[in-house]
Design brief:
The complex is a heterodimer. By secondary structure, chain A is an alpha/beta fold. Chain A has eleven helices and eleven strands. An eight-stranded mixed β-sheet of chain A has the order 5-6-7-3-8-9-11-10, with helices on both faces. In chain A, helix 6 crosses helix 7 and helix 7 runs parallel beside helix 8. Chain B is α/β, with parallel strands linked by helices. Chain B folds into two domains: about 240 residues, P-loop containing nucleotide triphosphate hydrolases (Rossmann fold, 3-Layer(aba) Sandwich), CATH 3.40.50.300; about 70 residues, no CATH class. Helix content of chain B is about 35%, strand content about 25%. In chain B, the strands form two sheets. Chain B has an eight-stranded mixed β-sheet, sandwiched between helices. The interface between A and B is large, with 43 and 47 residues. Chain A: Pfam families: ABC_tran, oligo_HPY.
Chain lengths: ~325, ~325
């Protein structure tokens, strides 16, 4: 295969966001002096770069820290340690413009606002007060996502699920963000609507050169959309690389396990390994060595040491067995 | 297979929910049957009537909130639509069990798992509490739960989602039902857990000869798990057949649209095939084919509602479409 085809020009695009050894932990319960008794370790050393114009897919099971990462990128959380640096932000603060599209459009749209106000809420938050200006921007963005301008004065409950998700996307677009975080954008939608929304996201990305961070547990959606993929397990990235490479030739045992479990059309369900542990280990006390040790089929004696990311530019794996 | 008595037989069932000055026609002539020991899938989008079908089969819809306008529903040769509540209490849980999407809401959050399991077992089987306890432990062990005693002593919130769903399956099988209705049993679970839960479900069903009616929206899951499949749209079956045949050679334009809209079906980055438009409003259904306005093959004859017709005289394989079947292949 032509290598230019597999690895698009993304590699040379400028970095707009860099995470260096980011850790986030939450105190679980406090003793009578208010000192934390224990911690939930949500993110355990994330190193990640986001380049302009790419789609970075993040996959993993529930509890692996996907949503904490989304909140961190949105600036809703501060890292406990490590640095989040924006290319055009100030002093490493999260001052860059990031917008998010949530999973459930029903609960993420304000039921009391007409949709032109919903769409321009990010602009309002940034200090825009002129109604005419906001309305004209709302009309423009709504047209781009396929919402008719006559509908601008309606309320969210008057729309179907797919249309509501379009409104949520319009809201994310209205302030011209550097990055749009898509947190499970289609998992609340029906199949036929999912296809429409994914197409819309792809069209908008081409037209406006958007940068997406796509968080999903649906591997086929990630395969369809993403240029690069990060696989997360217990607050760490265990595999990172170009989508073609990671999804076609996964190297980390966890990535393989995850992808094998995805239902595929016409592939029968085989009854091996019913009793294999499928639970994530708790994140109160982190394992000493490799985080995946307990569930790993390839575990060896020397897996008791912490693992680091290895490998080249196109695929990095946090597993020393794969060398 | 079609000669033996089906455990669930629904024939031309129509149901509507009265609403202000109108009614929502949730089911419009559903016909389906489940044979003993068979795993049958029902796929469809939201609003297609698949959950209403499941709930009505167990008579779990609130009484007097709905109106049956035609058709019949029988489970194990008993008419479920006219059965009194007293009989239903015996049927539910013993002859037919149900697994819901979100195990957290299906289990009582204020009572320990053990208490809840014993309630069901003792209600339906006349056995002592200690025998019921032993049975609960055996059931949980069958679900590959490592420490059943500990699980029985815990509250639902102490268990993970996969664990809770396994408890639900154990509970559903506690009285060895002949039919198990699973309404989106794995939607709230991760893929690795989903796979395990499905495998356990299938293993147990095959062992006990239980028939499963699986309600889902996931085409890939149906293709892996079910023997036969019904595709529903606006409260009616539009296509039915053996899973492998429906998946590899869908005949109804709606099924074709659903399958080709999956991200797996195209190269990454290529635009996906979509079904234009939206599901019609169930209170104002067109008199003709309900899919006609979204259909690329729509013809004048589509102003009349098509019925399910056998394809190539195969009674298992049916499609509700006017298009000559040859043209669709």
């Amino acid at each position: 295969m032509n290598s230019a085809l597999i690895y698009p020009a993304i590699d040379t695009a400028p970095e707009i966001l860099k995470l260096t050894d980011v850790r986030v932990r939450f105190s679980v319960s406090n003793d009578w002096l208010g000192r934390p008794r224990g911690y939930a370790h949500a993110l355990n050393g994330i190193d990640l770069q986001v380049r302009a114009g790419e789609t970075l897919g993040i996959v993993g099971e529930s509890g692996c820290g996907k949503s904490t990462l989304a909140q961190l990128l949105m600036g809703l959380l501060k890292p406990t340690s490590g640095a989040v640096s924006w290319a055009n932000g100030k002093n490493g603060e999260g001052s860059s413009n990031v917008q998010i599209v949530f999973q459930d459009p029903q609960s993420s749209l304000n039921p009391r606002l007409p949709i032109w106000r919903i769409i321009t809420e990010p602009l309002y938050a940034r200090g825009m007060r002129s109604s005419e200006q906001m309305r004209s921007i709302a009309a423009k963005v709504a047209a781009q996502v396929g919402i008719r301008p006559e509908y601008l004065d309606r309320f969210a409950h008057q729309f179907s699920g797919g249309q509501r998700q379009r409104i949520a996307i319009a809201r994310a677009l209205s302030s011209d963000p550097d990055i749009i975080v898509l947190d499970e954008p289609t998992s609340a939608l029906d199949i036929s609507v999912q296809a429409q929304i994914l197409n819309l996201l792809a069209e908008l990305q081409q037209a406006r050169n958007l940068t997406y961070i796509l968080i999903s547990h649906n591997v086929s959606v990630v395969r369809h959309m993403a240029d690069r993929v990060a696989v997360m397990y217990l607050g760490q990235i265990v595999e990172l690389g170009s989508a073609a490479q990671v999804l076609e030739q996964p190297r980390h045992p966890y990535t393989r396990l995850l992808f094998e479990a995805v239902p595929r059309l016409g592939v029968p369900l085989l009854a091996e390994q019913v009793a294999a542990p499928t639970e994530l280990p708790g994140n109160r006390n982190l394992p000493e060595g490799c985080f995946f040790f307990e569930r790993c089929s390839l575990s060896r004696q020397d897996c008791g040491q912490p693992q680091v990311m290895r490998g080249g530019q196109h695929q990095q794996v946090r597993c020393h067995v794969q060398d | 297979m079609s000669t033996c008595n089906p455990v669930l037989a629904i024939d031309n069932l129509s149901l509507e929910f009265p609403a202000y000055k109108s009614s929502v026609k949730a089911l419009n002539g559903v016909s389906l049957h489940v044979n003993p020991g068979e795993i049958v899938g029902v796929v469809g989008e939201s609003g297609s009537g698949k959950s209403v079908t499941a709930m009505l089969s167990m008579r779990l819809l609130p009484e007097r909130s709905y109106r049956i306008t035609s058709g019949s529903l029988s489970m194990l040769n008993r008419d479920m639509l006219s059965a009194p509540e007293k009989d239903l209490l015996k049927i539910r849980g013993r002859d037919a069990a149900m697994i819901f999407q979100e195990p957290m809401t299906a289990l009582n959050p204020t009572r320990r798992i053990g208490r809840q399991m014993l309630d069901v077992i003792i209600h339906h089987q006349k056995i002592s509490a200690s025998a019921a306890h032993a049975k609960a432990i055996a059931l949980l062990r069958d679900m590959h739960i490592a420490s059943p005693e500990q699980v029985l002593e815990s509250y639902p919130f102490e268990l993970s989602g996969g664990m809770r769903q396994r408890v639900m399956i154990a509970l559903a099988f506690s009285c060895e039902p002949q039919l198990l209705i699973a309404d989106e049993p794995t939607t709230a679970l991760d893929v690795t857990v989903q796979r395990q839960v499905l495998l356990l479900l299938r293993e147990k069903a095959r062992q006990k000869g239980t028939a499963i009616l699986l309600i889902t929206h996931d085409m890939a899951l149906v293709s892996q798990f079910c023997d036969r499949v019904y595709v529903m749209y606006t409260g009616a079956v539009v296509e039915q057949g053996l899973t492998a045949e429906v998946m590899s050679n869908p005949r109804h334009p709606y099924t074709q649209g659903l399958l080709s809209g999956l991200p797996e079906m195209v190269e990454p980055g290529q635009p996906l095939m979509t079904i234009p438009g939206q599901v019609p409003n169930l209170s104002q259904l067109p008199t003709g084919c309900t899919f006609a306005e979204r259909c690329t093959h729509a013809m004048p004859v589509c102003a009349k509602r098509p019925v399910l017709t056998a394809i190539h005289h195969d009674e298992q394989r049916k499609s509700a479409c006017w298009l000559p079947q040859e043209e669709l292949s």
